[in-house]
Amino acid sequence: MKSQIILKLFEITQEFIKDKSKAREFVSRIEQTIDAKFDSQKDYFVSKKDLYEVETKISKSIYIIGSIQFLAIVASVLAIIGFMTK
Asked: Burial code of 21-58, b = ≥16 C-beta within 10 A, e = fewer?
């Protein structure tokens, strides 16, 4: 946690816990709990690299699907022309 947040939390805690060492220990435990919670859930966060990889995969998929559709249309038109010329 940032030192400004820790200091503010310590000041608020001192309003309720007058003993400085107990207040410091309380804030320290809260900080450890928050850090542990963050560490356990950081795998669920998405980074710019992850977004770029997903965007690249989607772009490739769209290109492949578009190419297949184009080939299907061309094949259909050729089949229709071949059928009509017979």
From this structure: eebeebbeeeeeeeeeeeeeeeeeeeeeeeeeeeeeee
